[in-house]
Write a structure and sequence with these properties.
This protein has one domain. A hairpin with a 4-residue loop joins strand 2 and strand 3. The strands form three sheets. It has a five-stranded mixed β-sheet with strand order 4-5-10-9-8. Strands 1-2-3-11 form a four-stranded antiparallel β-sheet, with no helix packed on it. Strands 6-7 form a two-stranded antiparallel ribbon. Helix 3 crosses helix 4. The chain is globular and about 55 Å long. The chain is α+β, with helices and mostly antiparallel strands and 278 residues long.
Length: 278
C-alpha cells in the first residue's frame, strides 16, 4: 500500500536538496546555466549574465555561410538588416556596412552595437535585453590612468557591484578570471592576462573588448577593456575590437506550451498511480 508519510519524506528530501543547490549557487560569484539551449554564466557580483562564448560574433561568422557573390557572411547581412534605420551613440555620421566586420569577430564600436541589436531581434537565448558592458565613469572623467583602483581608466578598476557598470573590470578583477599587468602598488606582474581558472567561459580573446559607454568629452571615442593586461581605457570608435554580450540578472525561460502540457500529464499520472495504491 502506498504510504503518504514516505511521500512527505521524499518531498522533504527533494526540497532540501533544491534549497542546498540554490544556496551554493547564490554563494558563488560565477555560476553556469543555460537558456533555450544556450550556455551562459551568471555573475552575482555584477548581477549580469554573460554569454559563455567570449567571442560569440566570431563563432557566428565562422559557422555562417556566404550570403552573396561578394562573400559576405549571411549573419553579417542579417546584422545589417536588423540595424536598418537605427543609429548608435551620439555621433551622427558613421558608416556601418559589411566591411565593418572582420572574419575573426572584431568590429567597430557601431558594429558591436549592431550585433547586440541583432541578438535582441532574434531573441537570443530567449532574451531580448542584451547589451554591451558599460563603464561608470563620471561625466568629467579625463581617463587618468591609475593602478590602485581609484581611477576609471587603468588597472584594478572595480566597483564590486556597488553601482551598475564596470562589468568587464569586475569580471576580470573581482571575480578573478584575469591577472592585471600592474598590481595595486604599481608593480609589474608576470603572466598577466585573462586566465579563467574555473574554465567557465569559452573562446575568450586576449585583446580588447568594446563597452557601450562613450567618452563624454568626445563622443568619437568610447571606453574599452583590454583582457591581455586588465586595463580600461578610451580609444576611437572606429578601431575594431571584440564584443561580449551581457544582460541584467538571470534569463527566465518561459516554458513551451508542449512542455507545460507534458508536465500536467506527468502530474496526473503520478496522482493516478498514488490513488491506485491506496
Amino acid at each position: 500500500m502506498f504510504n503518504f508519510s514516505d511521500m512527505r519524506i521524499i518531498n522533504k528530501t527533494f526540497v532540501t536538496g533544491i534549497l542546498t543547490i540554490n544556496s551554493l549557487a547564490a554563494n558563488a560569484a560565477l555560476t553556469s546555466y543555460s537558456s533555450n539551449g544556450v550556455d551562459l554564466v551568471y555573475s552575482s557580483v555584477s548581477n549580469v549574465t554573460w554569454t559563455k562564448d567570449g567571442n560569440l560574433l566570431g563563432s557566428m561568422i565562422a559557422n555562417s555561410s556566404d550570403a552573396n557573390a561578394n562573400g559576405t557572411k549571411d549573419v553579417i547581412e542579417a546584422i545589417l538588416e536588423a540595424s536598418a534605420g537605427k543609429s548608435y551613440g551620439s555621433t551622427t555620421e558613421y558608416y556601418l556596412d559589411a566591411s565593418s566586420f572582420e572574419s575573426n569577430g572584431q568590429t567597430t564600436w557601431w558594429g558591436a552595437h549592431a550585433f547586440i541589436n541583432y541578438l535582441n531581434s532574434i531573441n537570443y537565448a530567449g532574451n531580448n535585453q542584451w547589451r554591451l558592458p558599460t563603464v561608470t565613469a563620471p561625466v568629467n572623467d579625463d581617463c587618468t590612468t591609475g593602478y590602485n583602483g581609484s581611477t576609471y581608466c587603468g588597472y584594478n578598476v572595480v566597483t564590486n557591484g556597488s553601482a551598475v557598470g564596470n562589468e568587464y573590470a569586475e569580471l576580470f578583477n573581482a571575480e578573478s578570471i584575469g591577472r592585471p599587468l600592474l598590481d595595486k602598488d604599481g608593480n609589474y606582474q608576470f603572466y598577466a592576462g585573462i586566465k579563467d581558472p574555473g574554465s567557465l567561459f569559452d573562446n575568450e580573446q586576449s585583446d580588447a573588448y568594446s563597452t557601450g559607454t562613450e567618452f563624454a568629452s568626445d563622443p568619437n571615442y568610447a571606453y574599452h577593456f583590454g583582457t591581455s593586461a586588465g586595463n580600461q581605457y578610451i580609444t576611437a570608435k572606429g578601431y575594431r575590437f571584440f564584443t561580449w554580450a551581457i544582460t541584467t540578472g538571470h534569463i527566465t525561460t518561459v516554458p513551451e506550451p508542449e512542455s507545460t502540457a507534458m508536465l500536467f500529464v506527468g502530474l496526473g499520472l503520478i496522482a493516478f498511480i498514488a490513488r491506485r495504491r491506496i
